[in-house]
Amino acid sequence: MTELDADLDHIIPSSVLPPSWAKLVVGFVSLVCFARSYDGDFVFDDSEAIINNKDLRADTPLGDLWHHDFWGSRLSSNTSHKSYRPLTVLTFRINYYLSGGFHPMSFHVINILLHGGISVLMVDVFSVLFGGLQYTSKGRRLNLAPRSSLLAALLFAVHPVHTECVAGVVGRADLLGALFFLLSFLGYCKAFRESNKEGTHSTFWVLLSILLGAVAMLCKEQGITVLGLNAVFDIFVIGKLNVLEMVQKVLHKDKSLENTGILRNGGLLFRMTLLASGGAGVLYMRWKIMGTGPPAFTEVDNPASFADGMLVRAINYNYYYSLNAWLLLCPWWLCFDWSMGCIPLIKSAGDWRVTAPVALWLCLIGLICQALCSEDSHRRRILTLGLGFLIIPFLPASNLFFRVGFVVAERVLYLPSAGYCMLLTFGFGALSKHTKKKKLVAAVVLGILFINMLRCIIRSGEWRNEEQLFRSALSVCPLNAKVHYNVGKNLADKGNQTAAIRYYREAVRLNPKYVHAMNNLGNILKERNELQEAEELLSLAVQIQPDFAAAWMNLGIVQNSLKRFEAAEQSYRTAIKHRRKYPDCYYNLGRLYADLNRHVDALNAWRNATVLKPEHSLAWNNMIILLDNTGNLAQAEAVGREALELIPNDHSLMFSLANVLGKSQKYKESEALFLKAIKAHPNAASYHGNLAVLYHRWGHLDLAKKHYEISLQLDPTALGTKENYGLLRRKLEQMQKKNV
User: Smallest Cα–Cα separation from 693: which of 679, 706, 704?
Assistant: First the structure.
């Protein structure tokens, strides 16, 4: 048992020390923390990564997953984010297949179970990090730090910063990346299982570790950093490098330096060569697959990376690091998005916030000095590996090697939090050793575990639906335009346009170049017939972002409503120029041509819409109605039948085709379609009214009377139905008089 474990004797009772019990406790606690999210909705990025991702559907070839990014776009596209995670997308696809569609519960349950499994695996990882590698004669690894590994695993399992990864379905990328990261590390440890002679190893396990690192990278990019952690572990734990001793020998020109074991260790050099070449090969393949260069992010995604001076960039990057550290220390202020003004730039050294990175670096330098220069080998190992686990997996998110598309992201702290939990456990052990109030230390530890569990449960509830998630961010990031935008969008989807307008206006105020907020606000104003302001907003949006196809289309709709037909046509054409496959825009262009009595152009536009989107019901319907109104009944019937073959359960298409068949005196077939449409949508007054007209023409007057009356009950204001019903009643009265 290690010295640290003895110091934690008052915190961790011996009754839970057996490995099976320890893992059971950790697994149970991890599931309790996030179980509340099991029946949550798809929220935030889940819509793009799952619901709108064609790679999940069976009609997309499996091979496409290897050429598409995480969101379903081709990696070769200039608009791709280059997030290459095919194995994660494959698990989404399996989820979709097994659950029979987009049922979020199964997706959430898998995430919760993954976090539970990772937390259990952490017990083994921490036992190596705290206790080192020692094996029995039968090759079984000894757990020399049962208390410290259990406490660190518990702290990891209940950390609230993990909520985004567990409760948000897209967080599965981080979970799977972490799982294979840990398996790679444990596999690397097994390379030394049967080593009786110092410096020997199993090349098979080293190569398997590299392979598992590559698998981790195919789940989430930061997975490849496990090779760096393996190297640090090998040098400082297996190679037993003592930096202080080496520096002293260099300063004193000690000849024994030449005989230092690590410099003469051929096995270590061979393993470092394998790790370096394996990592370089995997990164090269990753770069080749990306097709084009790195992704293009905007200033709102990561404003510090667009700052003019290198000093300003460096200060802000370091401030971001300190915010990440604070989220690990005090995970109470959590937000789904930290971009768009949430964290204003530090532009001068006089800003009080520069004290945060100064404090961070003072702490890090102190820990690094202890890790490298302490005479206690046990302390050196724990601090070195703790700092390695904290820093190395965070490097891809640090902006040091390339620009990232976020300011702060809680999800990237999933793996680094393991290093934090390790350092915190070491700190508790040191505190317990140097104080007589050991019960107080135990109470503090239990209090932290309980508070973090409570925070996890509360935060998991906030991630269950978008309304709670977005509103929870208002108090954390009130300056974040995206938060206000998402709250507004959620309100608009629920029909509360007045409140949505207020939040959209605030989003535009906070970020005057927020074109998506302008577009959505312009849409609502258009629906409320506030056309002048809608046109101003949409015109500004396309001026700021000239290739914003959706804004061009919406501008065209507003201009059409203002009777500015030439400008509307130009806007539609511009939208199609920037997005060639845009069926909705072709549909609206067709409506414009129909208003101008350019019937051939209208039919061509609607045909383009249905070619691009065969299930575009409105375009099919408009074609049938236009052909019907212009007397082309045969062509209207052909189009209607074609549409129903593609969308057989669309009651509006049944209704339109039934009207055409009735005019063609195909009464029986028309009746069947009317009845089928009414069965699908029984409260549509027009369906009953037009069926009544059919019966009226057909001579089935009693049935006509019945459906006229149903139609008028559903819509008493329908003048045409009233008039036809009056004609039928007079005809029935005349027939009764004749019979008398």
Answer: 704
